[in-house]
Recover the amino acids of this structure.
């Protein structure tokens, strides 16, 4: 009697929509604004910091670095999680409902308003990559062809450093694109602006005082050196 073969049924994988954002810089007031906006559609949005729960973003001032490294904004209806990790900025849902997808898009849009420029990091990594080549060029001009063993060692070390720098750049940029980043500032934006104004005022007052003092000193020296 022939065997009865049943068709192979592949298990259906659970639905999962993951959107990476970043890198972003978020102040405490930004988190409150994001929660206020999303709460209009989904109701309560919880602030989870590791195993702790914050009522408002300002409570994060008292959190530990370890707790902040596990910062999540969590909505339950529909189920949407916003992971605000130092090396991860991701909006995720396992709900295939169109409303859940709309909430994910709203969350991504809100986070993208706080994207920060990658230019400083790019130029820092570019300098790191160019440094071994600069050392190699300098060694050729300074040591000359008569120091072959030393040049070979320098070339080898420069190539190793260059390869390491390129590898770090590739891995770093890939992770940035895939997972994003979150920089959390434990101040409100207004506090940050006030601090910048205060710092700028201090610098200008100090600079003005130095210039004025130098001018007064110069005038006094000129008068004393040329008595009538």
């Amino acid at each position: 009697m022939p065997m009865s073969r049943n068709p192979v049924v592949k298990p259906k994988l659970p639905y999962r929509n993951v959107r990476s954002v970043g890198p972003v810089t978020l102040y405490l007031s930004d988190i409150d604004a994001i929660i206020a906006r999303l709460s209009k559609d989904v109701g309560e949005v919880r602030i989870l910091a590791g195993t702790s729960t914050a009522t408002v973003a300002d409570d994060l001032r008292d959190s530990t670095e370890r707790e902040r490294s596990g910062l999540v904004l969590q909505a339950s209806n529909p189920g949407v999680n916003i992971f605000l990790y130092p090396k991860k900025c991701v909006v995720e849902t396992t709900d295939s409902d169109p409303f859940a997808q709309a909430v994910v898009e709203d969350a991504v849009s809100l986070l993208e308003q706080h994207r920060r420029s990658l230019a400083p990091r790019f130029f820092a990594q570019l300098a790191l990559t160019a440094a071994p080549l600069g050392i190699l060029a300098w060694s050729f001009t300074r040591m000359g062809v008569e120091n072959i063993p030393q040049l070979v060692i320098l070339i080898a070390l420069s190539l190793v450093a260059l390869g390491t720098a390129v590898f770090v750049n590739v891995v770093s940029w890939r992770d940035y694109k895939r997972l994003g980043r979150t920089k959390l500032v434990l101040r409100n934006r207004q506090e940050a602006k006030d601090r910048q104004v205060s710092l700028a005022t201090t610098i200008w007052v100090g600079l003005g005082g130095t210039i004025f003092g130098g001018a007064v000193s110069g005038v006094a020296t000129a008068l004393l050196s040329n008595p009538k």
